Amino acid sequence: MMSSRVQARPVHRVRDVPCGGTAVEVRVRKRRLACLEPQCPRRSFVQTTDEIPLRSRLTSRLVAGMVADLSAELRAVSRVAAASGVSWTTVMRVMEDTAVVDGGVDRRLVRRLGVDEHRFRRVRYLKNDAGKVTRVEPWSIVFTDLDTGAILDIVDGRRGQAVRDWVGARPRWWRNRVELVAMDMSTEFRRAVRKVLPKAAITVDHWHVVARANQMVTEVRRRRAHDLHGRRGRATDSAWKYRKLLTCNQENLSGAQRGRMQEIIGADLELGVVWGIKEHVRQLLKTDHIDGFHRAWAELEHAVKATRMREAKSLFLTLKMWRKELLTFCRTRVTNARSEAANLSAKNLKRAARGYRNHDHYRLRLLGLYLLSTPC
Predict the structure, then answer these.
(1) How far apart are the C-alpha atoms of 309 and 130, rounded to whole Å?
(2) For 298-308, what is the mean pLDDT?
(3) Are 149 and 53 in the same domain?
(4) pTM of the prediction?
(5) Which residue intervals define the domain Transposase IS204/IS1001/IS1096/IS1165 DDE in the entry (predicted)?
């Protein structure tokens, strides 16, 4: 509709990109034109441009600059807001309006899915009306494409039901394309994945398996300190003094370190036994075919049965529960490393922002960092 009748010439104050580190405010005089059509419900309309959209207090280049600053590096939203001369809520509203927070997950061809959890914020203690104090641990679950390392989504929670709901919300063709799922040793996650992805194989991350074996060594070392000395370990005890060597890889030990290991084993043979069992676990994880896996498993089982230590039997019982997933790892060599890298990026983001309290803002910020980043 064309109109030549000017009803008013209002002046709008619009924020623009900073100049020389100083916030810039642009004053724009627009023409409000009267509509000559009697049936028009608006009666008047204001001229707009691509740089200054309708009812916008920000120029388009300022919006693009703020989004680029947030997606280019790990910067706090408050820093970007201060540099742009706007408020924190304005920057987050720009992110909500600009960022594609769904990431197009349903359109991605995901063959290998990574699932991992991390703590969203610190532990809180809440008191209800009855005076009962409840411990609240906010956690988040990160879903990652292991082929590309891209974060697919961040879900609030830590239970298997959250995994089941998110994966179950994907289209059937998407779920049928998933061939492998990598995770840590979480029985809830495994149960949920088997429920919604029955055709996908599950692999357990080998780092968590080795960490569980090292935990067994630490438990035995602490127990033996009380059995032999009736107290905790001290610097005068070789097992406590060189305790880090018990968790090191055998092939990485130097000559001097091997001598210290002999000193530890000579002082307590049980520590030598559990250290050998830990090395059997590592040898099991190094196999890459079925025959080698079964041979290494038989050697580990024989070593555990030869001892009466409850810590070793507890470790073997855990590995027995995850034997199928361990075999899948040895055959595919697929780890959850890219999910752990995504968790590291999330932690660095929280450090830069000094933490988050709202999970929706946290999810939006993290997805915006990955989805809006510009490749080199």
Answers:
(1) 45
(2) 93
(3) no
(4) 0.82
(5) 113-366
Residue ranges in the chain assigned as alpha helix (H): 60-72, 77-84, 88-98, 160-168, 172-177, 187-196, 206-229, 238-241, 255-267, 269-286, 290-305, 310-321, 323-332, 337-353, 359-371
Residues 164 and 281 in one domain: no
Q: What are the two backbone dihedrals, phi and then psi, of residue 2, each rounded to the nearest 5 degrees?
A: -95, 145
State how beta strands 32-34 and 44-46 pair: antiparallel
376 lies in some domain: no
DSSP state of 334: -
Region 34-54: mean pLDDT is: 77
Considering the domain architecture, whether residues 200 and 341 belong to the same structural domain is answered as yes
Instruction: Determine how β-strand 180-183 pairs with β-strand 139-145.
Output: unpaired
According to DSSP, the residues that pair with 60 across neighbouring strands are none
Residue 361 is predicted with a pLDDT of 85
Q: Could you tell me if residue 130 is inside a domain?
A: yes
Proportion of the chain above pLDDT 90, given as a percent:
43
pLDDT confidence bin for 376, thresholds 50/70/90: very low
Of 75, 98, 121, the residue that ends a domain is 98
Length of the chain: 376
Output the DSSP codes for 44-56. Answer: EEE---SSS-TT-
In a domain, 322, yes or no: yes
Nearest to 66 by CA among 87, 91, 89: 91
Cβ of 201: how many Cβ atoms within 10 Å? Answer: 20
